[in-house]
Amino acid sequence: MKYLKTTAALLLIMLLGVTINATAGNERVPKIYAFGFAASFNDSTVYITDIQEIENVWVNEKNNFLLDRESYSNQLKEYLQSKNQRNRTCIISYAFKRKDAEKKLLKMKKRYNAANHYDVRVIMPAEFSFKAVEPTMNLLQEKPLSKAEKKAQKKSQKKAVKDAKKAKKEERKESKKQVEKK
Q1: How many other C-beta atoms can be found within 10 angstroms of the C-beta atom of residue 77?
Q2: What predicted TM-score, i.e. pTM, was given to this entire model?
């Protein structure tokens, strides 16, 4: 029974310890301009998509990071796997202005075309296009925690830890009493 209480207290601590993504709010932007890049450590072929306009995407207001970037990279990875190009590391690069995206793409192409040992292949939008992704709910947390809420959360975590330690201590005392009775 005491073991169950201790386990429950530890579970409570873990649940309270989970922090909410509350660093900043997120917003939907009408469009971004993006391109994908894929390379493998096993060969010298690299794939670069053409610049694509992706509509209704979510970004973090504070640092303008695209939310769920890995989902966009996975779209490119799955496309390449369907073409028997396995073990590719894929990234997405984006900008809010087409001109900025073009600069990034040009820089990437120059880097890999200048080194003659890469086979650069361009994937046209007719072959592959990114689809907008709805981020998971925890990424859509709109309201950051206030200082008072953070303080209350921290206080409750400390209390839960203290209660768990106390329960464990009582459990040890109880088990010692049982051993002494025997």
Answers
A1: 20
A2: 0.62
Q: Are 22 and 40 in contact (CB under 8 A)?
A: no
182/171 Cα distance (integer angstroms): 17
Q: DSSP 3-state assignment of 58?
A: strand
Express each pLDDT in 146-157 by its tens digit.
Answer: 777 777 777 778
Long-range (24+ apart) CB contacts under 8 A made by 132-140 are 132/54, 132/55, 132/56, 132/57, 133/57, 133/68, 133/71, 133/72, 134/58, 135/26, 135/58, 135/67, 135/68, 136/68, 138/20, 138/21, 139/21, 139/26, 139/58, 139/67, 139/68, 140/26, 140/58, 140/67
Write b or e for each residue in 86-102: b if 16 or more Cβ atoms lie within 10 A of its Cβ, otherwise e: eebebbbbbbeeeeebe
67 secondary structure, DSSP code: T
